[in-house]
Amino acid sequence: MIIDCHNHVGSDLLFYLHGDFPYAQHLVTMHDEGRALGVDRWIVFPFVSHLALDVTAFMDNEIKDEKGRLQDIPYAFENRRLMKECYELFPEEGKRMLPFVMGDPMRNTAAQEKELRKLRGEYRFHGIKMQTTILQADIKHLRDRGKVFVELAAEWDVPFLIHSSVAESDLWAQAHDILDIAEENPGVRFCLAHSCRFDKECLDRVQALPNTWFDNSAHCIHCVGAVQDLPYVAPKARRFDSDYSDPARVIMDLAAAYPKKFMWGSDSPFYSYAAEINGQVVRLISTYKDEVDALTAGGTEMVERIAHTNIRDYLGGTILS
């Protein structure tokens, strides 16, 4: 069984209105394309921006809270929309989905808790996802106003999946901050997305902590970033040693170095990214097939371990038929 542990379903008004790509993914399209490539199950969650932000500022790529909100509670609409899509609109495809809810650790967290408890009474979900870079909401708020999410994860025995960064310009999702929080909460499971941007020090900490894993979401374009020394991956002095011109080789090396902590995920549809940044168009393009091919090149044992066994261990009590 191949489980893809990192996928977005729905749409993102910030990306759409600012002119960035991707900005949407339909559950059935993802399912059908993935099934044709041999994927059996998907961990899914909403896109990143939420309607409790000022949507009128999205065209200028600004995150504001003051006005222009379509909702008062972060992700209340988006999480319920995902559950309806998985369980009611497309139940045949939905039975292969493992939905996670999204959370904002900084804004109106008490109301988010109330909404999540209500949602939990109506639908089954398997974890909590956070992408705090886009929200400009420091992940360290999991220690204070966002601590409710840690408490819910412990109460429900569900894991976190958290976007991670090592870029100095990213003030909101530093991998070392996520690892510090994981170390402070040994009873809660955490996954750091994007291979900790290949930062060996962070990957080694994942290896050392019993309650942490990492996924390699958007792997192929991260390998491009390493080859080109782009700022969204760890600099050479801190980078895990591998041949980044060969994404399959990198997966095999990571799987050998971190045999029980590495989980495979495509980050669909964010295995590709295109946007205008500082007046210049940036295009980092991969495909679902490229991501799966890089995985399966490592052979059956490795695939079973990083795309099934490790993910089941991370999920805990989730039963997969």
From TrEMBL:
SUPFAM superfamilies: Metallo-dependent hydrolases. Coiled coil: none annotated. Transmembrane segments: none annotated. Keywords: Hydrolase. InterPro entries: Amidohydro-rel, Metal_Hydrolase. Residues 3-313 form the Amidohydrolase-related domain. GO terms for molecular function: hydrolase activity. This is Putative TIM-barrel fold metal-dependent hydrolase. It comes from Prosthecobacter vanneervenii. The lineage of its organism: Bacteria, Pseudomonadati, Verrucomicrobiota, Verrucomicrobiia, Verrucomicrobiales.
